[in-house]
Amino acid sequence: MSNLFQKWRCLGFDPEKLYDYSEKMIATNLSMMKNISLLMSLLLFFGALYPLLYQHSIVHAMLYLVQSLLSLGFFFLGDHLQQRTETAQKTSRRCVVLFMHTISAFGIYHSVISNPHMISVLFFICILCLQFAFILSPMTNMLSIFVDCVVFCILSFVVKGIDLAILDFLNCVVTFIVSSAIGWQIARLRVNQLQAETELSLLNHHLYELSTTDSLTGLHNRRRFTEEAARRIVEHAPDETYIATLVCDIDFFKQYNDFYGHDQGDIALQSVAKRLMGFRDNYDILLCRWGGEEFMALFLTHTPEKAHQIASLMCNAVYDLHLDNEPSAVSPYLTMSVGLYIVPSDDIQDWNELYRKADEALYLAKKSGRNRVITIA
Question: Which residues are identified as catalytic?
Answer without folding.
Answer: 293
